[in-house]
């Protein structure tokens, strides 16, 4: 019986989704540990305890440029193996200490750095197996972005159960063992794409094979340095502003509902609804993105951020649980495509070039925006006793972000695509034939003959006769 060969990219995709769900589940459920730590370490301030989780999650995103060094030096598989080892050690050691300062270094920094090495290489590997020209590019890269809400929905209740039955020390140790086992199994599948891995549905004329059989991408036309810098700077601040406005409501929604007189249990239910709506929005993008949004994500982002601005303006007037649930559901559905298509959007800024570098810049803006959103929301609450003005602030930021996405698309069309058209028009044209149907040539060698010849000696070079 002949067993059909499975395209290895699908194996890498399953492993990537699995290990990223585990990463986001562990790091994203720190809020459950925070509640326990607030009672265990009563002598420590909430600022330090909060920074433990914020540092871990911030490193997973904002330190992405540092990841490019080991990824390009030792490869994706070894980088993930290294991350699994570091993060597992960090989690295990965190369960042995009772000093929050020590946990800041073992969990916040050590575990955060390990999670960074695990979390990002799957994007680059999936891009290798399903390049931009693949009909599955948006679906596969967007599925990786579904792991954040999926991990949050699945691991928050699991972490809560473990903390109440085993305690926080054993919970850390259990996650360390689980991450080591699952991480090593998934990392073992992360091999570099070879020439045998090219699928008929995924072939790409830009791909060439090197001497060792690995698949590489042909060099593309160079983009002017000033254009690259200009678009990169706008891209960074666009992602920074978008993250600042987008993640603030997720961080404070439960507390905001509490200020409106809604019990904490119902606030947690509202967050579950919001996370479910966002997961649905990301999943829809994954399924239909290749067919309807591929190549148009910059324009889609401009529209979605404009709608997010309007939703936040309406959210400022929400005064009941139902109002805020509707706001949160709309926020999740509209924000789903903005988060899910991030890797595909990076491929549109430079028309398919320097995607990994743009993705790293994007992650820095994302992580920085997460931290900034929490700081601004807290400052607004401390100054006014309410989060209402945060929604007005988000309205303005989203409107600005919408304009910035539009400007990136316009500048890309003028400065990159327009320049490429000029280069095409400036190519030397083939000489026109004479009325006799022959092209006049003259020898460029030092021959004594100045007469044109119809015969072209292959051993001599010829130039057009003037």
Mean pLDDT: 81
Question: How many strand segments?
Answer: 4
Strand residues, percent? under 5%
Q: Mind describing the biggest β-sheet?
A: 2 strands, antiparallel
Assembly state of the chains shown? single chain
Radius of gyration: 27 Å
What is the tally of helical segments?
A: 17
What percent of the residues sit in helical stretches (DSSP H or I)? over 70%
Order of helices and strands: HHHHHHHHHHEEHHHHHHHEE
Strand order of the largest sheet: 1-2
List segments where confidence is low: pLDDT < 50 over at least 5 consecutive residues.
208-213, 429-466
Overall outline: globular
Termini separation (Å)?
Answer: 70 Å
Structural class, by secondary structure, is mainly alpha
Features:
single chain, mainly alpha, two-stranded antiparallel sheet, 72% helix, disordered C terminus
Q: Mind explaining what this structure looks like?
A:
This protein has 466 residues and is mainly α. 72% of the residues lie in helices and 3% in strands. It has 17 helices and four strands. α1 crosses α9 (147-165) and α5 packs antiparallel against α6. Mean pLDDT is 81; it is low at 208-213 and 429-466.
Task: Give the SSE layout.
Elements: H1 8-28, H2 30-40, H3 46-62, H4 64-74, H5 76-94, H6 100-119, H7 121-129, H8 137-145, H9 147-165, H10 168-187, E1 207-209, E2 215-217, H11 225-259, H12 264-292, H13 297-315, H14 321-340, H15 342-349, H16 355-384, H17 388-425, E3 441-443, E4 462-464
Antiparallel strand pairs: 1-2, 3-4
